Amino acid sequence: MLEPTIVTQANKRTAAPAPGPAVSVIVPARNEEASIARCLESLTTQDGIEYEIIVLDDHSTDETPRIAQTFATVTVLSAPTLPPGWTGKCHACWAGARVARGRWLLFTDADTVHAPGSLCRAVETAIRHEAALLSYSPEQELQGLWQRAVMPLIFAELAATYRPRDVSDAHQAAAAANGQYLLISREAYDAIGGHAAVASSVLEDVEIARLVKAGGRRILFRYGGGEVRTRMYRGVQDMIDGWTKNLFLLFPQPEQLARRLIVEFFTLAGAAVAILVSLVISSVWLLVIAMLAAFLAASRLFRRVARAHFDLLSTAISPVGLPVFAYLLRRSRIHHVKGNVTWKGRSYDPRPESKRATAVGQH
């Protein structure tokens, strides 16, 4: 594999831009053999715009680099050893950006699948709205009961916390982005210092968005249904680890949110029990009161979840996920407070007083 030539935080010099494609698509990949072929198939068949694709293999121990190399038009680079103070994804993205030639940079995860023509449409949308950064929240592919029950709840809360309308409003302070699809102009990326400016962050997408907006540049943040989709997690443990890494940072009051979720769950569960009891004892008044309580609690929850763009089945079973979401919030808080966040074989200490990152058994 090729080696990027300018990759360290210390060397921040930006080379004079050479003639290049309109877009450089940068895909950081660490142990993504199950998904990277689908991702690259969807990217290599884009049309309507000139682009290059750069895959940064981040010390994978599986078949990720070999699979990526089977795509003739894809440049596969091997990320250098992770320096102290960097997260793996930030370092891989930075390494890719340093060799990219495009006027726009698209950072997208290896588990995404891109609709035909979506790359051209995204650039046209960003230019038309004079946005320096366009980020899509991809359509989520869910597998299994727990993903279907929990993911709609989390994305519903994210949509309420980071309202796309506010994020896209230049007059609002709100800033957010989804690192699964982050399209940024080269000028804006260099101006904020790129991923080197957020090197230690485990929530680098939101931090980049904040820097872009703080610099007076416009952000567009949208649901990406029809343009890009993703299967974020392959199993329950992946989902637990992934949200443990992010939830504490995503929500300003995670403990308060966890308590609210538990109250919602017991309200619904209590109403369901009351309905059963009323049927057993033939109490019409208890049945009416219990059904009214269940209707009010469920309708409030379902209205919130419906705004997160999930299928009807996932929305219907989302009440089952309420205590699981509360557990993940508290688990995330504990791990962040203790300075022990693990993701893809690496352990990070995200506490402000300790900006370090160490690998667990590998680079």
Walk me through what this model shows:
- The chain is α/β, with parallel strands linked by helices and 363 residues long.
- It folds into two domains: 23-138 and 178-234, Alpha-Beta Complex (Spore Coat Polysaccharide Biosynthesis Protein SpsA, Chain A), CATH 3.90.550; 254-359, no CATH class.
- Helix content is 46%, strand content 16%.
- The protein contains 13 helices and 13 strands.
- It has helices spanning 36-44, 64-69, 88-99, 118-128, 145-161, 164-167, 186-192, 204-214, 236-250, 254-281, 284-306, 312-317, 322-338, and strands at 23-29, 51-57, 74-78, 104-108, 112-114, 133-137, 139-140, 181-185, 219-223, 228-230, 341-343, 346-349, 356-359.
- It has a seven-stranded mixed β-sheet, sandwiched between helices.
- β2, α2 and β3 form a beta-alpha-beta unit.
- It starts with 22 loop residues before the first strand and ends with a strand.
- Residues 2-17 and 355-363 have low confidence and may be disordered.
Tell me which oligomeric state these chains represent.
single chain
Annotated CATH architecture of the largest domain: Alpha-Beta Complex
Q: What name does CATH use for the topology of the largest domain?
A: Spore Coat Polysaccharide Biosynthesis Protein SpsA, Chain A
- What pattern of helices and strands is seen along the backbone? EHEHEHEEHEEHHEHHEEHHHHHEEE
Morphology: elongated
The mean pLDDT is: 90
Structural class: alpha/beta
Q: What's the β-strand tally?
A: 13
**N- to C-terminal separation?**
17 Å
Which CATH top level class of the largest domain fits?
Alpha Beta
Supply the number of helical segments.
Answer: 13
Percent of residues in β-strands = 15-25%
**CATH H-tier superfamily of the largest domain:** Spore Coat Polysaccharide Biosynthesis Protein SpsA, Chain A
Q: In which range does the helix fraction lie?
A: 40-55%
Report the major sheet: 7 strands, mixed
| Low-confidence sequence ranges | 2-17, 355-363
What radius of gyration results from the CA coordinates?
A: 22 Å
Strand arrangement, largest sheet? 3-2-1-4-8-6-9
